[in-house]
Design goal:
The chain is mainly alpha-helical. The radius of gyration is 22 Å and the shape is globular. The protein has one domain.
Length: 447
Amino acid sequence: MRTAVSGWLERRRDLIRRAVATFTQESASTAVVGITGLLIVHELPKEQYAMYTFLVSTAILLVGITDLGLVYCALPIVGTRADDRRWVVAVCRRIYQKRWILFSVGVPAVTAYAVISMRRHDWTQWWFVVALALTAAWAWTMLTQQFTGEILGITQSIRVLNRAGWAQTASRAVLICLALLPWWGDLRLALLMGSAVVATALAVAIHRRHIRGFGPIPDASPEERRAIDRRVVEIVRPLIVPGVYYQLQGYVTVLLATMAGTASVVADVGALGRLAMLLIIVDRVLSVLLMPRLARCTTAEQFDRLTRFGLGVYALTLVLATGSALAFPQLWLLLIGGQYANASGLIWIAVLSTVLYFFTGFLFRVLMTRGFSQGQFVNILFAVGSQVIAIAVVGVDTTRGVIVTGLASAIGQTTFQLIQLVRMRRREIRTVLSDGSGDSRDLEVLR
């Protein structure tokens, strides 16, 4: 027995080492980000925290517009050639060229939305305009970080990603503490957005320094570019609308609050959203460790084993997080402060909604590692249909209405992605058996 365990540990030593390193970094990062986020909740007046929530969500919206499903193309296109650094960089570079173009197109649209919201809430102060400009700069650096991080993630440069994560977390924590000093007055909001720009740029610099160590990497040949573009179109075509919707699904809740609710409702929704930082570590660790391995799987047995592990982790997270929020809501309330006591009865709903959103994202990324994008448009019907029903019942002009609407959307999307996972496996089994190339236990996972 001891020999078998030792052998199992020896075979998985590298994976365990990377898992521990990633878990440690993500745990520390989540703790620091959570603490600084809660510090922002406590220190900013409720009106300014509503502004801060709006700015952060606007940055997410701007980055999300660049997606159109492109974020899910790199892993299935790279496939088993993940050890070919030139190919990895060529694929990512080609994909992100399209995202940077979309960013430039999206800026005017997001600016128009921001101006409408500013006028509605009378957020026309000069320091808010400065903070909004810094928000656009932060969105640009976040997109660049996704580009460099994608390359490092596919090449399994986990140590570099962790080092950059440490640097980004520590620098932003220090800058946030400095920005919240009382003598800055109203300028604190702009300084908070500036701290995000600086910390993200630091992580990008660390990424780029490591990538330069790959040596000279020529661009893809014309033939390779055409091949990449064809595969991108194949993956993205059914994902253009649902891909954008998925990227922005978390923002929809804040969007509804901003457009239909008061500044107090926006602040409540933003504060409850801060609780998600305690749960994001599960999603981040699984994304870093499982997704590249899923993309490299060559047999159904490998694929199913890793997928079941991810499903089990999320099931455990859902039970523990939601159960504790139901049993001890006052302990969770301590994290966001007494000024949000009116929302204490909604904490368990917010926590459950967050876990389901992360779970939906996990399922979606599992499907995308195999390039299975068929039928994703129906996801919008599940999500929007659930939201319409919730809005008809509870409305969106109160904190409760917005949170329940978000939960309804999460349930609808989780249901759909589980159906998609079953469809993908059945399709692969039918394909292989019809070809006479094996049985359901030994089938090759389709590229």
